[in-house]
Structures are given as C-alpha cells and as structure tokens.
Specification:
Elements lengths: L1 H26 L4 H25 L3 E3 L12 H16 L7 H29 L2 E3 L2 H4 L4 H6 L2 H24 L5 H31 L9 H4 L6 H6 L5 H28 L1
Antiparallel strand pairs: 1-2
C-alpha cells in the first residue's frame, strides 16, 4: 500500500491535472473563467490549509521523500487534480436555480468527504501521513483519527466548492459573470472554504476534547496519572527504538554486575 500511494502522489497529478482541465473546458464549452475556478479552488485550498496544518501548527505531517518541512510541496496538485476530476464525474448540468446550487453542494460534500477520508485512512496506515490529534494521543485507530477532522475539512470544503461552482454557473447563465464579479465570487468561495470548515472543526474539538485541536497533542499529556517514565518515553513518535536500546543496555549491565558478584563470592 505504501508503495502504491508513493507512486500515486507523483503520477496522479501528472495525469489528472491536464485531463481534468481538458474535461472541464469541454464541459463548460471553452469558458475559461469556469474552467479555471473548477481547477484552482481545490489546488489553492490544498496548499493553504494543509500547509498551515503541517508547517505552522504541526498537527499533520507527511513522511515522503520530497518535503518542505512537514509538508509535501506537490500536495496542492495531488488533492486538487483528484478533486477536480471527482467533481467533473459528478457534474450533470450547469446550475440554473437555487435548488441546483444546494443539490451540487450536497453531492460534492458527500463525494469529497467519503473519498478523502478513505484516502487519509490508507495514508495513515501506510505511514505516509501522520496526525497528532486527540484520538491519536488516546491510542485510537486510524479511522477514528481521520474522522476527527476529515468530515469537517473534506466534506465542508466539498459543500462550499460545489455550491460556489454552481453559483458561478448560475451567474454565467444570467450574463452577470463579468471579470470583477468572477474574481469577487472566487475570493469569497475560497475564503469561506478556509474559514467555515476550520471553525466547525475547532468548535467540535472544544466540545469533544476540551481544546481547539490546532496544536499537536502528545500522548503523555493525555495519559492518566500514575503512568511511569518508560511508558511516557514510548509514547513519543520515534522514541520506541531508543527506549528499547536503553532498556537492553540496562539489562546487560545488570547481568554483568551480577556475574561479577558471583565470581567474587566463589573466590572467597
């Protein structure tokens, strides 16, 4: 699985980015405003939100060869190209009224929420992604770790992205999508996609865990009183091997001291 995901993160953007661009351009009959919005919104979101979550807040971390700090520099296109392709697959016809906007928001919310939660679960299991949230600190499984943030960030972005694209389609249908209007709507949609899912996640985290969930939660901080030092050391990522080595050295030292004492007693 790790090898497959490692190949996917480089191969998928190279294939899906041009394909999704061409498919959206055909879907919109060459309308470059709508095509660029469909492509750029998920790419920009996937650079801003995960970039802050990894290199600023430290809650997420990518374990890949190509990295900038804790963030993989191509992540925007890994997420953005796949998102644009999924949205194209679910696109039936341009929006013509408010009902279409609500329907598209719900469809893309469900679609992105499901597939991206599944992807993150597999990425965690493969060791490509690390998440230091409260469920991780409590020793929960990968599904519970991802479900702590995935529905808000992926489903929330999907709802706003789907509704935003449908709004642009409706404005274009009515002849109101001038360049200033286009730029204003795209900026508002991106802003909402950044703020609303984050606010929902923070609110949920305060209710469920008693904190904002915007800082890494170390395992020793969530354990009950009475946990010994060895358990605390073992809870820190990457400390297992070092702790095992120290324990082995202590055992060898103890055995050597014991043998010396026996030899001394026999000589006496």
């Amino acid at each position: 699985m790790k090898r497959a995901l490692s190949i996917y993160q480089y191969a998928a953007p190279l294939v899906l980015t041009p394909c999704s661009f061409l498919l959206w351009r055909r879907e919109y009959a060459g309308n470059m405003k709508l095509t660029l919005a469909a492509m750029l919104l998920p790419v920009l979101w996937a650079y801003i939100v995960p970039g802050i979550g990894t290199n600023v807040l430290g809650v997420w971390e990518f374990d890949t060869r190509l990295r900038m700090g804790r963030f993989r520099p191509h992540h925007g296109f890994v997420f953005g190209s796949a998102t644009a392709m999924l949205a194209w697959l679910a696109h039936a016809a341009p929006a013509r009224d408010l009902t279409d906007i609500l329907r598209k928001a719900l469809v893309i919310c469900s679609l992105l929420g499901f597939w991206n939660v599944l992807y993150d679960v597999k990425a965690l299991q493969a060791g490509i992604l690390r998440v230091y949230n409260q469920p991780w600190a409590d020793g929960k499984g990968t599904a519970e770790i991802v479900l702590d943030y995935g529905p808000w960030f992926f489903g929330g972005f999907g709802a706003i992205y789907g509704g935003g694209m449908a709004t642009l389609e409706l404005l274009d249908f009515r002849g109101a999508l001038t360049m200033p209007v286009f730029l204003a709507v795209v900026s508002i949609v991106l802003g909402l996609a950044l703020v609303v899912p984050t606010a929902g996640y923070v609110g949920q985290s305060i209710v469920r865990h008693g904190h904002w969930g915007t800082r890494p939660v170390m395992k020793q901080k969530s354990q009950k009183a009475g946990t010994n030092v060895a358990q605390t050391l073992l809870s820190v990522p990457g400390a297992e091997a070092a702790a095992a080595e120290r324990l082995q050295d202590q055992v060898l030292e103890s055995r050597t001291l014991h043998d010396r004492r026996i030899t001394k007693c026999q000589s006496v």
